[in-house]
Each structure stands twice: as C-alpha cells, then as structure tokens.
TrEMBL record:
Keywords annotated in UniProt: Nucleus
GO biological process, one term: DNA-templated transcription initiation
Protein's cellular compartments: Nucleus
Residue intervals of the RNA polymerase Rpb4/RPC9 core domain: 7-120
Family: Belongs to the eukaryotic RPB4 RNA polymerase subunit family.
InterPro entries, alphabetized: HRDC-like_sf (IPR010997), RNA_pol_Rpb4/RPC9_core (IPR006590), Rpb4-like (IPR045222), Rpb4/RPC9 (IPR005574), Rpb4/RPC9_sf (IPR038324)
Alphabetized Pfam families for the sequence: RNA_pol_Rpb4
GO cellular component terms, A-Z: nucleus; RNA polymerase complex
Gene Ontology molecular function: any one: nucleotide binding
Keyword Nucleus: yes
Listed name of the protein: RNA polymerase Rpb4/RPC9 core domain-containing protein
Length: 120
C-alpha cells in the first residue's frame, strides 16, 4: 500500500485516530498547544475525540497488537482501526489491499475481535 501512496510516504508512520488523540492530549497536557495559541489545534482535538473508536489507549493498543499479530501492514492497521468495518466484504471494499486475504472466515473473525474491543 505504501508504494501506491507515493515516495513521500515510503518512511511514513501510519497512526490511528486513537493514537493521534493520545499525542494531542500529551501536547495539551504539557502546554505545547492550547486554544489560545492555536485555535486549529482545538478543532483537530475535537475531531479526534469525536471519531476515536476506542474507549482508551490501552484498548487501542490491544487492537493494534491484535492486528499486528495477524500480519496486517501498518497502513492497513490504521485504516482498520479508524474505520472498524463489520464484515470482510466491507473491509475489502474500503481497503482493496485486503483482497490478499483469501479466507472470509479469518478476516471476519479478526474484524469481530476489533469490534469487540471497540465496544469495551
């Protein structure tokens, strides 16, 4: 997938919304950013809080680790965590690279675990 995105993404780190939220919380807590010195920061922070799929960073880490154990690529992990598709068909339509996984049962089981973690 990284190849399809272009050379500028060759060494990029792919983050889930949960991970971005954790970084922004750190910047805010440490005083690096605030609404008074950067109103855009607050808009971005509100966005990630709204669209974060996981209840806390520990659960987000569990989801990421589970996807890594199933040998998903970093970009796929970020997209799966952000989108939380409910079926293999939906996942493949959103992330065409997942067509490499032949077993619907295997992919559905992974997605079910992802949804379970999201709902903790």
């Amino acid at each position: 997938m990284e190849d399809r995105l272009g050379p500028e993404f060759a060494n990029a780190m792919f983050l889930s919304i949960s991970e971005v939220k954790t970084l922004l919380e750190y910047f805010k807590r440490e005083g690096y950013m605030s609404a008074s010195n950067n109103p855009l920061f607050e808009q971005i922070f509100a966005y990630v809080k709204r669209y974060d799929r996981f209840p806390d960073i520990q659960v987000s880490d569990q989801a990421k680790n589970m996807l890594q154990e199933h040998h998903f690529q970093d970009a796929e992990i970020a997209m799966l965590m952000n989108l939380c598709p409910h079926s293999a068909e939906e996942a493949r339509s959103l992330i065409p690279e997942l067509n490499r996984i032949e077993s619907d049962e295997e992919l559905n089981a992974t997605l079910e675990e992802l949804v379970r973690l999201k709902n903790l």
